[in-house]
Amino acid sequence: MLYLSDKLYVSPHDLTDMLRKLTGQSTQQHIHLQLIEKAKGILSTTNLSVSEMAYQLGF
């Protein structure tokens, strides 16, 4: 979050607040949902096993 807030020239707290207002989710919830969507895409377009895909995504 610090990396993104630095690039957007806002504080991490302000970025967290903006994300919650835009998505209705906490930062952690948003990240998890994005990872799940990425996992779905990987599983539907590759022959990777679930464990290989999970490893790639840092689970």
Give the total of beta strands: 0
Helix content range: over 70%
Structural class: mainly alpha
Distance between the termini: 18 Å
Question: What is the alpha-carbon Rg in Å?
Answer: 14 Å
Provide the residue-averaged pLDDT: 90
Number of helices: 4
The coarse silhouette is elongated
How does the major sheet shape up? none
Low-confidence stretches: none
Q: Report the portion of residues in β strands.
A: under 5%
Integer count of domains = 1
Secondary-structure element order, N to C? HHHH
Molecular structure report:
This protein is an all-alpha fold. It has one domain (2-56). The protein is built from 4 helices and no strands. The chain has helices at 2-8, 12-23, 27-45, 50-56. The longest helix is centred in the middle third of the chain and has 19 residues, at 27-45. The model has no long low-confidence stretch (mean pLDDT 90).
Short summary:
The protein has helices spanning 2-8, 12-23, 27-45, 50-56. It is built from four helices and no strands.
Write the topology of this structure.
Blueprint: H1 2-8, H2 12-23, H3 27-45, H4 50-56
Descriptive keywords:
4 helices; 59 residues; single chain; elongated; mainly alpha
